[in-house]
Every structure is written in C-alpha cells, then in structure tokens.
Design brief:
With 300 residues, this protein is an alpha+beta fold. The chain has 4 helices and 17 strands. The chain has 3 domains: 49 residues; 74 residues, SH3 type barrels, CATH 2.30.30; 88 residues, Immunoglobulin-like, CATH 2.60.40. The protein is globular and about 45 Å long.
C-alpha cells in the first residue's frame, strides 16, 4: 500500500490491482483459492481504512467560540432601569432656573436710583436758560438748537419738569425742549435747598400780611407788603415783580407751582389729603436778582 497525495486515507496502488488481476487470469484452477484469500483480505482492509472519516478539529472549536460570545455581547450594553431613573431627576434639578433670580419691574412707588448727571441736547431753535426753575424767573441766556447739555439737578416735586444745567452760572431749562438720555426724576434734588436764587442788594424783602383759606372751595389767598420796583429795574416789559413759590396739594400729591404777579396778593387751590404739609414763600424780583424770601404762614 502507498498513500495517495491529498487524501486522508490509504488506497492500493492501481498497478497493484492490475498485477493481481493479471495473476488471476494466468494461475491454474488448482491454485485459485490460495491467491484469492490474500486478495480479499487486502481489499477488505483498504475499504475499512477509506470508510472511516477523520473528524475535523476546527469546526467544533469555532462553533463553541461563536455561541459563547453571542449572548454576552448582546446583553452587556443594555441599560438598566435603575440607571435611567437616577440620571433624569438630577439633570432636571440642576438646569431648572430659580424664579427668584429673575428680575422683575420695579413697583410704581419705588424711587429711581439717583445719578450724578444726565446728557441732553437742545431741540428748540432757541432755549432760554433762567436763574430759577420756571418761565417767570429772570433770563440768563439762550442755547441754540443742537447744543449739548449736562443736567445736574431738579426740583423737589415730581410734577415739575424744569432741570438745572451745568454752566459757569448754573441755570434752568424746560425739559419739554430737550432730548434727555435718561429720566430726569433720577437727577438729584437741587431746589430749593442746594441751588439758590441770586440775591439783590437794592431792594428789601417783603413781609406776608395774611393767608386765608375758603373752607368750601379750599382756595387760599395770601397777601404781603408791597415793595415797589423802579421801571429801570425791570428786565423787560413782561417781567413780574413778585414770584410766589407754592408747594400745594393736588390729587393727593404735593406739587410745585411757581406763580408770578405784579400785585401784592394771589389766590390758588390747596386740596386736603397729602401726607406732606403745603407751604409757600414770596420773592421780590428785579433785574439784578431777588429779595426775600418771605414765608407764607399756611392756613388750616
């Protein structure tokens, strides 16, 4: 027997089979049996060898390997229910904004923060700047359209919109004719305690004679001692010789209401219901300045 290349079993060589066949045809009948027995034994041995398969070694190994890793791979990445519920509330709590940190609008009765000054620009062709906070006070000079202004103060009443302008001689302008970068109520209160009217050396102050209230109408009438002013000391033909500064109650609010006259008396309305007392004073006005003031004794 010789092995056949490329096979896993042994087979009889084909030349050997031919020689046996050839010998079978040539031997005499008396010797057939001895020759036949070796042939049958050899053939049965060869068949036994070829019919027995050799089990492969790689197939079972690979099959076991594949089945062992498949379930482990599929289940190792599945998240558990405990992990999901523990992460969700933690993220929600940290990212939720706190309502108290959200700024809201200031209440209407909250005063504005005070600023040192505000910038403004004149919008009228010519804007008068006066010694006092109102159109009846003495004239100082005028600003032209587009002039830049620095506002530094206001009156101690929210109804009055005249503002004090920084200047070599500070003076007052109406906020109706300027463009302001901000709110004039945020300016510091300068009048009447800080900013003062110029005092004249040429005339004496007056003296208030009386102040009476009408209980039915709440009208107050005040009178004072007359102080004559020479025509040469009038600023112009429209100048009034008395300035009456009144802080009076209207609609539950104390308002500033400056008035002017050439007579030695004046009347105005003063309603009840304000938390602060009403008050007033009288100035004598001439082109060089003011004499006074004379305080008005306020009637009950």
């Amino acid at each position: 027997m010789i092995p056949v290349p490329g096979r896993g079993s042994l087979f009889p060589h084909p030349n050997l089979l031919t020689s046996v066949s050839f010998g079978y045809s040539k031997i005499s009948p008396m010797r057939r049996k001895p020759l036949l027995l070796p042939f049958v034994i050899a053939t049965s041995f060869a068949c036994t060898l070829t019919s027995t398969p050799i089990a492969p070694t790689s197939a079972p190994t690979s099959a076991v390997t594949n089945t062992s890793f498949a379930p482990v791979t599929d289940t190792s990445f599945v998240p558990s229910a405990t992990q999901t519920t523990s992460i969700t509330p933690t993220e929600t709590l940290t990212e939720t904004p706190i309502a108290s940190e959200t700024p809201g609008p200031l209440p209407s009765n909250t005063p504005l923060p005070t600023v040192q000054s505000l910038q403004a620009k004149v919008t009228a062709d010519r804007l008068s700047c006066r010694y006092g906070p109102g159109p009846e006070y003495l004239y100082l000079f005028a600003f032209r359209a587009g002039a830049p202004l620095e506002l530094i103060g206001r009156v101690d009443a929210e109804n009055w919109n005249w503002v004090l302008v920084e200047n070599q001689v500070p003076c007052w302008v109406s906020a109706n004719f300027i463009e302001v970068q901000g709110d004039i109520l945020s300016l510091p209160v300068m009048y009447p305690d800080v900013a003062k009217l110029p005092i004249t050396p040429y005339y004496p102050p007056s003296e208030v004679l009386s102040a009476r209230r009408d209980p039915l109408t709440n009208q107050v009438t005040a009178s004072w001692v007359e102080v004559p002013v020479s025509l040469g000391d009038y600023e112009d033909d429209s100048m009034q010789t008395y300035i009456i500064e009144v802080w009076r109650c209207q609609g539950g609010e104390l308002i500033f209401d400056p008035q002017a006259t050439r007579f030695a008396f004046i009347s105005f309305l003063d309603e009840p219901g304000c938390g602060e007392p009403s008050h007033g004073r009288v100035w004598v006005q001439e082109k060089h300045g003011y004499a006074g003031p004379a305080e008005i004794p306020w009637p009950e």
